[in-house]
Amino acid sequence: MIEVVRLSKRYGDKVAVDDVGFTARPGRVTGFLGPNGAGKSSTLRILLGLDAATSGTASINGKRYRDLDRPLRTVGALLDGAGPVPERRAVDHLAWVARSNGIPPRRVGEVLDVVGLADVARQRVRKYSLGMGQRLGIAVALLGDPEILVLDEPANGLDPEGIRWIRTLLRDHAASGRTVLLSSHLMAEMAGTADDVVVIDHGRVVAQGPVAEVTAGHPSLEAAFFALTGDRPGPGR
Questions:
Q1: Are residues 17 and 123 both part of a single domain?
Q2: C-alpha 13: how far from chain center
Q3: Could you give the angle at which helices 130-142 and 160-175 cross, rounded to 10 degrees?
Q4: Does the CA dihedral 10-234-218-44 come out positive or negative?
Q5: Which position among 38, 43, 177, 194 has the lowest Cβ density within 10 Å, counted as fewest Cβ atoms?
Q6: Which pLDDT band holds residue 231 (cuts at 50, 70, 90)?
Q7: Helix, strand, or coil here: 196?
């Protein structure tokens, strides 16, 4: 389980996260929504031990990320912008990550099959398309067969078939009794994937609960999101 309690983060005079609290529970996909700059990335970075909180806590199964033993066996993560050395082959990158966390080498081939990269596993990552690179990031997240997945924009760069694949993967992960925390700007996809949503705006949680509860009185999750955040769709959005 993921539990965030009264979490705040300041960067100088700027408040990025302001008294945020929510829980992502086993057996459910929890969507984490908010406009750009709302505090989502700061919250996820604190949760994954990449940044320190000013106050409050963010825990995984009751522990801080840095206190987990072999963390990839507990939580698999994909954050936007993270990736391997471009000159490294995908299979070598995964093998290195596996060794660093005591994960059996057989898992490398297994996750390459799961994400559909087995046939291009020995290509240099620099030759990968955006969608292939995203699949490799998801393979890293799955490598330790973790109880918990924390994914930031996992459908980025995926084609329609790939989006359907990641939706099924996440739903199956939750159906097996595991926990998924998912951040995405794809509202229609989130509505079809998430059980619960947490909406954050200007660093504060403005709504949370089951999707049906948050969208009550609105024609869609997208409409509820715009009403809650004061954001409005514009050209290209």
A1: no
A2: 28
A3: 10
A4: negative
A5: 177
A6: low
A7: strand
Verify that 104 and 162 share a domain, yes or no.
no
Q: Which of 123, 117, 122 is nearest to 138 (CA)?
A: 117
Any idea what the Cα angle at residue 4 is, between residues 14 and 36, rounded to 5°?
45
Helix (H, G, I), strand (E, B) or coil at 56: strand
Phi first, then psi: give them for residue 235, nearest 5 degrees.
-55, 130
pLDDT higher than threshold 70 for residue 82? no
| Nearest-angstrom CA–CA distance, 155 and 63 | 28
- Residues 107 and 53 grouped into a single domain: no
Statement: residue 174 has pLDDT above 60: yes
Residues 138 and 46 in one domain: no
> Do residues 169 and 134 share a domain?
no
Q: How many CB atoms lie within 10 A of CB 76?
A: 25
Q: What is the CATH number of the domain that holds 200?
A: 3.40.50.300
